[in-house]
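Hey Z.,

So I finally got round to the calcium ion thing we talked about over coffee. Here's the setup:
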Amino acid sequence: MRQVKAVIMAAGLGKRMRSALPKVLHPLCGAPMIDWAVRTAADAGSGAPYVVVGRGADEVRTYLGDRALFLEQTEQLGTGHAVMTAREVLRNYSGHVYVLTADTPLLRAETLIALHQRAVDTDADAVALTARFDDPTGYGRILRDEKGVFQAIVEHRDASPDQKAVREINASIYCFSAPRLLEALDRLTNDNAQGEYYLTDTLAVIKSAGGLVETLCLDDPEEIMGVNDRVQLAMAAQAMRRRINEFLMRKGVTIIDPANTYIDAGVSIGQDTVVYPGNYLEGATAIGSDCVLYPGNRIVDSAIGDRVSIQASVILESSVGEGTAIGPAAHLRPGSRIGKNVRIGNFVETKKAEIGEGTKVSHLTYVGDAIVGEHTNIGCGVVFVNYDGEKKHLTEVGSHSFVGCNVNLIAPVKVADNTYIAAGSTITDEVEEGDLSIARARQVNKKGWVAQRLQKKGEST
Ligand code: UD1
Ligand code: CA
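And the result:
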């Protein structure tokens, strides 16, 4: 690929978001807006792009780390002013540079590449991306002469009523010849409604200096939807979700109701898995094939094997082996390593727990800081008592064992393979292989006690 650089404008105040968080760090589908812009530029061949930071500069730098190079715009005097911060780094560079905003997260890398290609093919000094909007309110308008040749961009606020009627808008995404851009930036003024240096004016400046300005009009205007407030953020997120869901459906995933299924970019799902509405699949999550995700799950940073079914459950930083059934209403907290063909039933909570193949934990149980073997049955209402008020301790339960209902296992404690623990026991000492352990008060029945009590009552009145 030919050499190309990128400058991403991300220093604006983002006032219309009304947020303490810098606008470009607002997430959609699991990644902040700036993340989408940086990835798109890099995918379009720019390498690590230059990001112009201002508002929330430190937070943006920290988030991006070494995936970007940073330019500081200390005062936000407009988009043209933002790009002026790149003067030094573009000084001795004669190639092309993408200039884009951080607030159009739906932009595709292919579109940037097409802009670059257009610049190369036509030998243009600048190519601006445009689209036709039914409602162009708020956007800069593309002005053309009677032959349709590009003349200038006028901002909505500066536009006359005639100009406002133009439906072709500026996407604020460009490919410039770097030397022509620098020359034009030197000649920008801030003589407009907002008293700002508009990057948009560089195009008219290039033209008046005899340069060639081309435009590329997008068929799919959704791609350049700008996000200035939270209404637009929700709209963009919805469009991004649709894109992610369609990609997965084309790969063989059944999504029953895509409008109500929330899958982050980067989540992978195997073929023939069925996803019901109300699933939230987040972060670095991988779901296997032939799974069924029934309604109402939230799965974050977790690895789920093939043929797993999950209902109305929360799974965080955990793994689940193939053929396992989870829920409804299970909570797998970080560090749960659930084996194959396991059953984790209703109202079961696990944390830092390894549970072996074929084991069943079917009802109302807490398994924290534990290692449980294979084919063991954990009864209803068992508590792995892992906390002594100061420290957490480990409980180990072996394979082929039976832990009766309502047992407390007071950690640290070990229960060997092939053991039985009677219901209601409170286990504080090791249970050895082959043993039955009963640790509860012996039952006492008082013969005729009720009648005696009634009689006593009668005597005292
Ligand atoms: C801009 C364009 C408009 C276009 C629209 C498309 C200008 C003057 N206008 O308007 O023609 O239709 O995008 O979405 O360019 N920024 C800085 N420093 C600044 C000002 C802005 O870095 O001093 C950054 C912002 O963080 C943002 C981007 O530049 O990422 C665009 O700024 P914004 O204020 O959102 O411009 P629009 O009014 O949307
Ligand atoms: Ca904008």
